[in-house]
Amino acid sequence: MERNQRVEDYMRVIYRLREQGMVRGAYIARELGVTKPTVSVALREMEAAGYLTIKPDRAIELTEKGEQIARYVIERNDVIFGLLTDIGVDKETAQADAGQIAHGISEKTLDALIDLRHYLTFIRKTPFGNIKE
Amino acid sequence: MERNQRVEDYMRVIYRLREQGMVRGAYIARELGVTKPTVSVALREMEAAGYLTIKPDRAIELTEKGEQIARYVIERNDVIFGLLTDIGVDKETAQADAGQIAHGISEKTLDALIDLRHYLTFIRKTPFGNIKE
DNA sequence: CGCAAAAGTTAGCTTGGGCTAACTAAATTT
DNA sequence: AAATTTAGTTAGCCCAAGCTAACTTTTGCG
């Protein structure tokens, strides 16, 4: 299994779910809006591919590889989310759209967006730059 | 056939290809990087769904419905493309990423990005805003 | 004109990622 | 402890969207 959008989604969701305790397939299913069988199969494949491990008590844990992907995805997501909220998009919309945008854009564009965000922050803090308000 | 990403891609490509004369399935295939049979089937479905018509001489023409989608998609695309190039992304990368971004983001976010672009243009033209260079 | 190249189609296969139904296993409530 | 709810699995199906192979039709050159 190559590292596609699906893998990234699972890694991200699992990473986030950990903060609420043990990660279970059913929670992932709810979070992703798919059914349990779908998750069951996907988890088996991802375990085989080395992204996670399924413990005897069915708890899901990320491998180092999975962990890295999760952090990568979340970082990208956060950058986009931050930019969108900075420019006035409400949080819910920003969250939904950040996922869409973050996936599949190049490093170059991501870097440019990061710079842009810094620039906007700077501009806003600068008296003469404080034009919009 | 509902209006999915695939439909939007076809409408956009056909709209653009028109500028170089008659639109043929083979050109669409080249443009989208898929094979002729794929296009052949897709066009038949899209004709049935009312997005385009296939003339007796095999020329492809958009219906009003298809035309609207094409313009909508292209407009969104251009906004994103413009923003990305404004912030220093090279044209090729911007083109590729604009497609990714434009698809699937909300009107709210798109509007915010349009505003942002205007803002950046304004800032750049304004002496005190001319900080970055 | 005749024929090669380009365009288009059909049939049949593949892959990814879903789904439901039907089941077992575990956990929680009563 | 028994019953109910929740979690997980397996089997079998579906669908979109691609592909190749093999074919027909059209176009346009020499």
Task: Give a nutshell description of this structure.
The structure is a homodimer of 133-residue chains. Helices cover 66% and strands 5% of the residues of chain A. With 133 residues, chain A is mainly alpha-helical.
H/E element string of chain A? HHHEEHHH
Q: In percent, how helical is the residue content of chain A?
A: 55-70%
Determine the strand fraction of chain A and express it as a percent band: under 5%
What CATH first level of the largest domain in chain A would be assigned?
Mainly Alpha
The whole-angstrom Rg of chain A is 18 Å
> How would you name the oligomeric state of the polypeptide chains in this document?
homodimer
Shape of chain A: elongated
Number of DSSP strands of chain A?
A: 2
What is the averaged pLDDT score of chain A? 91
Figure out the total of helices of chain A.
6
Largest interface chains and counts: A-B, 29 and 29 residues
Largest sheet of chain A: 2 strands, antiparallel
| Poorly predicted ranges of chain A | none
Question: Into how many domains do the coordinates of chain A divide?
Answer: 2
Helix/strand-derived category of chain A reads: mainly alpha
CATH superfamily of the largest domain in chain A: Winged helix-like DNA-binding domain superfamily/Winged helix DNA-binding domain
> In angstroms, what separates the terminal alpha carbons of chain A?
50 Å
